[in-house]
Design a protein that fits this description.
Distance between the termini: 26 Å
Shape: globular
Number of helices: 18
Strand content: under 5%
Number of strands: 0
Helix content: over 70%
Largest sheet: none
Structural class: mainly alpha
């Protein structure tokens, strides 16, 4: 009997009672805790995007700029698989608490770094913590909330990005300019206690699934380690651009490809109908948009001579629009149009990145970025949240942890591969040149467009 099969009478009543929402008993404190946790992660992400160009220059590591992003996602690959196993067999409480703690340690390491490689190491530690946290949060949503409320919780996830998207760049830019970029990282760990106090006590009664008590699957963990190692080696090969890089690329691919084939649902890379395509689309969407976004502040600072604050604020509208898009997919009418929402969302993201490509040209107005990113954020809000809802709908209760991990692994893998491609293009065509930025954004536009064309295969 699964955890959901053992639901209490009150839980069953909640599913039938439309007056029960995510902010009414018994979900209020859990929802507030989850939102606080996502709020913390969102603020860190927006703050890092604003401070990263300054940190890379101060540490004389602009050439390692892509590593600071891909290192986070590479480490999170391993942590996501471990978290999925941990949640299914021990429950989400322990991985959630451990992840938040490790995330804080990574912030401290990055904030005190004296070299770019140490800074990248801090980002790797953050990735380990973030990977544990994000899968555990999805498992909590899948097991603790009835299906009727899951889209609303995912919309709340997106809404948690609004305040950080608006305030984060302003605060981060101001701190970076007047106190130094280090305080952007060192000030965030003090916020960790809040989500722990609010959320973790609400999860003590949430039991693991029907795999409770079984040992962790060491084979899956070894595959995850090989996947993360292969992704890291590929990223390194893309940055070297020498004859030796071909050997590194071959080793990375030999580790990554077989591991990914075994960790993700069968048929993912050939866009098999249903769950495989849903998992694939998550990687395509996140990889194209987030990889492009990582280079936007650097482009605005170097090409248009924006201040770090103004560069970060140019992306703020995208965060608000992302929340609006996610809210739209949570409306009752959206249930009949899930595939259309994904297709339109990815199409909007492709158009938005194309707009940034135009803005990268010397005579183009940098303000074009702000408008483009509002459109892209709206599309991503619809697509990402809808993909998550489709994953829950296509997963049996006992598979929630594994499929949530697969979704996040695809997300991180998409980010790593797209960032590796972007880093290779950026380095090969002259770090910081117009042609380098143009190549990066054209590649990401194409990837998002491919995702939009595959959306129809997400249907059962």
């Amino acid at each position: 009997m699964t955890t959901l099969d053992r639901a209490t009478d009150a839980d069953r009543a909640d599913q039938a009672d439309s007056s029960v929402g995510i902010l009414t008993r018994p979900y209020r404190m859990l929802t507030v805790g989850i939102v606080a946790c996502v709020l913390l992660i969102a603020f860190e992400a927006t703050a890092v995007n604003t401070a990263m160009p300054v940190a890379a220059r101060a540490l004389h590591g602009v050439g390692l700029y892509a590593f600071a992003f891909s290192g986070f996602f590479t480490a999170s690959l391993l942590a996501m698989v471990v978290s999925g196993e941990w949640c299914d067999k021990r429950g989400p409480l322990a991985p959630l608490g451990a992840g938040i703690g490790v995330f804080g340690v990574g912030l401290v390491v990055a904030g005190t770094a004296t070299s770019m490689w140490t800074f990248v190491g801090g980002r790797v530690i953050q990735g380990l913590g973030g990977g544990l946290v994000i899968v555990a949060l999805y498992v909590v949503v899948g097991r603790r909330y009835p299906e009727r409320l899951q889209p609303k919780v995912l919309a709340a996830f997106a809404a948690s990005w609004v305040l950080p998207s608006v305030v984060g760049p302003l605060v981060s830019g101001t701190v970076t300019q007047h106190l130094g970029w280090r305080w952007v990282f060192l000030s965030i760990p003090v916020l960790i206690v809040g989500p722990l106090v609010l959320m973790l006590p609400q999860l003590r009664g949430l039991a693991p699934g029907d795999k409770a008590g079984q040992p962790l699957d060491r084979r899956r963990i070894r595959l995850a380690f090989a996947l993360a190692t292969g992704a890291g080696v590929l990223e390194y090969a893309g940055q070297r651009l020498s004859l030796w890089s071909l050997a590194y690329a071959a080793v990375g691919a030999a580790l990554l490809v077989p591991s990914a084939l075994r960790l993700l649902p069968r048929g993912t890379f050939r866009a098999g109908r249903g769950l495989p395509t849903v998992i694939l689309l998550r990687g395509i969407a996140a990889g194209a948009f987030i990889s492009a976004e990582a280079f936007v502040p650097l482009m605005l600072v170097t090409q248009h001579h924006y201040s770090p604050t103004l560069a970060g604020l140019s992306l703020a509208g995208g965060g608000i629009a992302w929340a609006v898009g996610s809210w739209l997919q949570g409306r009752p009418w959206a249930e009949r149009h899930r595939v259309t929402l994904v297709r339109c969302g990815l199409g909007a993201a492709a158009v938005a990145i194309a707009g940034v490509t135009v803005a990268a040209q010397p005579d183009a107005p940098g303000a074009l970025v702000a408008g483009s990113w509002v459109l892209g954020g709206l599309g991503m809000g619809m697509a990402i949240a809808t993909i998550s809802v489709l994953m829950f709908q296509l997963s049996a209760p006992r598979e929630t942890g594994a499929n949530s991990a697969a979704l996040q692994v695809s997300d991180a893998l998409g980010n790593i591969l797209c960032t590796a491609l972007a880093g290779m293009l950026f380095t090969a065509l002259g770090t910081g040149t117009t042609s380098a930025f143009t190549a990066v954004f054209v590649a990401m536009t194409s990837i998002a467009a491919i995702g939009a064309s595959l959306a129809g295969r997400a249907a059962r």
